[in-house]
């Protein structure tokens, strides 16, 4: 009986292997997204650290003279 099951499964991928591979892919994508977000956040932090000592505002142009209209 056991050999019949093994023969039927011969050449097929085990479901646990597929789930493990899917989990690894999900973790890899998550880690890539985290790396991307850390890079973006580090650039924002660099800007804040630069503007702080010069007391520069961290806002957009809201003055009507600069709106181009």
Brief characterization of the structure:
With about 70 residues, the protein is mostly helical. About 65% of the residues lie in helices and about 0% in strands.
Beta percentage is: under 5%
Average predicted local confidence, pLDDT: 83
Approximately how much helix is present in the residues?
55-70%
Which outline best applies?
A: rod-shaped
**Helix- and strand-based class?**
mainly alpha
The count of β-strands is 0
Distance between the termini: 83 Å
N to C succession of SSEs: HH
Over the alpha carbons, how many angstroms does the gyration radius reach?
27 Å
Low-confidence stretches: none
Number of helices: 2
Q: Could you give a short account of the major beta sheet?
A: none
Which SSEs are present, and which pair or pack?
Blueprint (H helix, E strand, L loop, with lengths): L1 H8 L5 H37 L18
Structure overview:
The protein is mainly alpha-helical. It has a domain at 24-54. Helix content is 65%, strand content 0%. It is built from two helices and no strands. It has helices at residues 2-9, 15-51. The longest helix is centred in the middle third of the chain and has 37 residues, at 15-51. The mean pLDDT is 83.
Task: Give me some keywords for this one.
69 residues, mainly alpha
């Amino acid at each position: 009986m056991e050999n019949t099951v093994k023969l039927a499964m011969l050449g097929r991928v085990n479901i646990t292997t597929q789930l493990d591979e899917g989990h690894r892919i999900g973790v890899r994508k998550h880690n890539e997204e985290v790396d991307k977000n850390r890079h973006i956040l580090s650039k924002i932090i660099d800007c804040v650290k630069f503007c702080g000592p010069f007391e520069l505002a961290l806002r957009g142009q809201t003055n009507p003279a600069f709106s181009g209209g």
